[in-house]
Task: structure prediction
Amino acid sequence: MARPRNFDEDIVIQQCRQVFCTYGYAATSIDDLVEATGLKRGSLYQVFGSKRGIFLEVLQSSLCVVEQIEPSGNHEPAEDEQQNKEPDSELTYDRPEQTVMPEPQTEHQGTSPIPDSTLTLAAIACLELASHDAKIRMIIDQWAAKQQELASALGSNLLKHAGIIGKP
Result:
């Protein structure tokens, strides 16, 4: 019998968002996400299925995609992630206290109303995943269709993130 969750999924998604924004998708390990959230590896797999499942939830939540493309909990772990899965783990924190950094308010250069973390996640999705992941591409396509001057905002965010203009 599954135990009830002892954590707020929205807080976990915010914590994972910060990690993905810092390292990108490919450079983020499950260990990074475990450390950031304080959850056990098995708990993350049970809720999200895989690192890709976590990224999908983070991306959908950040882009405010209303329709869930792939519901959480139904993701198959990637082969390399499956070997690290903890069997029959409980949904508990490894650490007693967790804090979440507040979402940065619009600190952009330019006039984009889109938060920097959202632009960063969209850029990561485009650069690292969309060319070979149809679901990621569909999420970005849905979101981009609703944005005005997205190319300019993404370009400015990439330059800022790289330290070329302003502070990342």
The longest helix spans residues 9-23. Helices lie at 9-23, 30-37, 41-48, 51-63, 79-82, 116-129, 134-145, 150-161. The chain has one domain: 9-161.
